[in-house]
Amino acid sequence: MDFKLKHVTIDKLFGYKKFDCDFGDVNILGGTNGSGKTTILKCCYYLIKEGKLPVSNLEDVVGSLQITFANGWTLYWEKVGGVQNVELKDVEGNIQVLEVLQNATKTYLAASFEQYISEAIRIYAVYGATSKSTDITYLDTLIEDQLNIRNKKFAGSMSAVLSLLQNKQEGNVIKPADFQQYMSLYMVLNKFFKDYGIGISADLTFSRGKENIPYQRLSMGEKQLLYIMLLASNASDESAILFLDEPDLGMHIGWKEQLVKALVQLAPKAQFVISTHAPSLIKGWRECVKEMSHLVQEA
Question: How far, in Å, CA of 234 to CA of 124, rounded?
């Protein structure tokens, strides 16, 4: 079943506004600071992913929210008497359990501004007190999580990939489609990281000259790009919705112009809902831009 977003309506956004918008495969929300871009992304993500809005910061900024999916199903949320009510209905109006939706499509949220942490956090519980680098940022942990997902996904293919790249005949045989899926991430990253060599390995090590550079030593903008690309690559073979809040932060204008095309290349089956302030990011995708000033009206 196709559970991509088709239409979203939010009443009483910030208490007095109404948001009304159609959605396609690629959607780029543009608008001023405070116009509601991040709020809309998070509301849709949490409602689909968890069946509720976080009590701390979202449930009191919207009155009601309705998502209509491409298959005709609807997901409705409102808060009545301090209680969050959620209802999922199929095309015939029958109430369905949320697990049907959640099992049919995967949702991901990259709230980039919140992940763009300038200060290091020390995570001894995860990395151990004897770690060579205790200055681990939250973005580093997100990259590691996505690498672990990737390595688990391709656990049975790694040796076959390396054998094929080295023109060896021994080892496991890999299907052309699986090889292409595995290598697609490297092909995309090479378009961005032109000053680096990228080793094909489980830990995704970069190099410059004779020096090996672990991803933890990349710049914040480089890490941001790596995380977003890993996220898209890991969603390449599934029906997914990726909510990306200002994913281009810290990136050069040349990278911004390539970003959306690269994401679609890595995850052609996915739907993207992206917020941005950067005109360069929408280059070639103007038909996908949704300007908040045209979508939000005072109720």
Answer: 28
120, 215, 281, 286 from 218: Cα distances, Å: 14, 5, 22, 31
Query: For 190-227, b where at least 16 C-beta lie within 10 A, e where not — what string?
Result: eebbeebeeeeeeebebeeeeeebebeebebebbbbbb
Taking the C-alpha atoms of residue 109 and residue 106, their distance in angstroms, rounded to an integer, is 10
Which residues lie across from 18 on neighbouring strands? 297
- Rg over alpha carbons for the chain, rounded to the nearest Å, is 21
Backbone angles phi, psi at 5, to 5 degrees: -65, 135
Q: Return the amino acid letter for 191.
A: K
For residue 275, what pLDDT is reported? 95
Domain count, the chain: 1
Q: Which domain holds residue 201?
A: 5-298
Residue whose entry in the numeric block shows the structure tokens 């199903």: 73
Cβ atoms of 236 and 185 within 8 Å: the answer is no
Q: How far is CA 265 from CA 21, 95, 175, 258, 260, in A?
A: 25, 36, 20, 11, 9
- Give the model's pLDDT for residue 124: 45
pLDDT digits (tens, 9 = 90+) for 6-18: 999 999 888 888 9
Looking up residue 175, the CATH number of its domain turns out to be 3.40.50.300
Alpha-carbon gap, residue 163 to 152, rounded angstroms: 19
What is the phi/psi pair of residue 279, to 5°? Answer: -60, -30
For the chain, how far is it from start to end, CA to CA, in angstroms? 34
264/146 Cα distance (integer angstroms): 18
What sign results for the dihedral spanned by CA atoms 134, 140, 143, 145? Answer: positive
Give me the torsion for CA of 201, 202, 203, 208, rounded to 10°. 10
